Amino acid sequence: MSARPDRLRESPLGPLLLAALVALPVLLGVAYALLAALGVLGAGSSDTASLDRFATVLGARSTWRALGWTLYVAAAATALATAGAALVAMGFASNTRLDRSARALATLPLPVPHLVAAATALLVLAQSGLLARLLFAAGLLDAPADMPPLVYDGAGVGLIVALAWKELPFLAVVAIALRQDIDPALDETARTLGAAPRYVRRRVMWPLLWRGMLPAVIAVFVFALGSYETAVLLAPVDPAPLAVLTMERFADPALARRGDAYVLALVTLALAGVAVAAHEWARARWSATTVSRA
Amino acid sequence: MRANIPPRRARPAWTWAALVALTLSTLLPLAVLVLQSLATSWRWPLLLPDDYTAAGWRTVASGALGRSALTSALLAMATALASVLAALPIGRSLATLRAPWRHVAAALVFLPVAAPPIALGAGLQVATLQLGVAGSAVGVWLAHCVPAIGYAALLFMGVFGARGRDDEEAARSLGASGLQVWWHVLLPSVRGVIVEALAICFLISWAQVALTLLIGGGAVRALPIEVLALVRAGQDRDAAVGALLLVVPAMLALSALRFGARRTDALPA
Lengths: 294, 269
Fold this sequence. Notes:
The complex is a heterodimer. Chain A has helices at residues 5-9, 13-37, 52-59, 61-91, 97-107, 114-125, 130-137, 157-181, 184-192, 197-226, 228-234, 242-250, 255-258, 260-285.
């Protein structure tokens, strides 16, 4: 497309200011959180700024345990949801009624809120939940106590499963759209050249799909990282996930400790900031257009 | 594996297993929720409840769940309207940017979408305290608009960027005013995306927990707050009723989205 003189004269300043305006609440939030973390604003504040709260929170083993555990859960849930979404997109790609139903099934829970996913996970995965009842009916279990704990467990199985279940439909929507945009000629060319279907899936389809999915995968990782309601319902008390730890500090009866919440919020925001940068990088590098026929 | 080409219609065996897993994992949790919302009691190790009652559903209209659902619906509608109205001109303006500014702007607008609500709420809470709207529905509404505007602006930025400006410039050269361009050229061309943005912004507010808790401070009883309290209190039947109340409008909003998308081909089917 040829650039027109009037477009060249347009300054980027106005639109950039608007974009900054949209981001302003976050930037303000960071500023407030920073001031509160420094102890000059909010609960338990004083006149002088100090790094004491940073030192306390960042020096505590519990903070790093929470951080590590939260990253582990978010990564595991994202990996599971990504794999599931890619399988749906690749396994049910045709226009047959069966494949279309499978795609519709996979995307059906898209609008289910995180809270509902977590509440349902409790009903299904708890020690006396539906899964345990099914295992009992199959003669594999004698009592609820024999059921391995899947919620409030240290391995975070219930939380990972609930998050993956919640995020799979969104990633499936993205993966299905990408799969349908992949030029059928690519598939046919690879096969004509003698590639086995499995080889085509692994070396042609999957890399194309993965590049297109990456921005959405990063977004899902950030959502999983920061989700409070799933964590508070399904995670163990120790190690506490970052979001739960932050909320607990906020409501801490000891006013002096409430400021710790702002340090934790800043840690979470920093993680999200890194992910946003990665997201834009991925979008700029592998925009969906490189996958499509265009 | 030998490198010969199988008949194209052959369905790999794993896809049958995947189909069964997909059906169970999608429908079973929703079925459990429906059964639980109607159960008088559901003793171990029964696969179905002992007995059924509609009591949980009957008291919705008169009880806390009904009130909080109304609060949530009003909040979500106000959030959707305000966010889409704000995001339309913003997205339109951002769409004129070129790389590298385009990426800078997209990252800025993505920030409120990606910022974990609990971390975002921490800062916003101090801000709403200073504005005097903490603990009020107005404060919660403003807070919900933050991620919603970001999401809608990203959406409009993408669609306005993709559609080009030729017809708009043609209208302008024929003497159309700014408002006329919006009304006769821009808005009709993105009608489907507006429906999509309204639905998504509605859902962002409708499902919001952390922002409502932090800014509302327990005083604003939106539906998710009520449901979270019921789940934590172990009141399984009422919690299930509340959870289904949360799911149904969400599914309807998604249907509106798909309907809008079909009419305009804005989304891949």
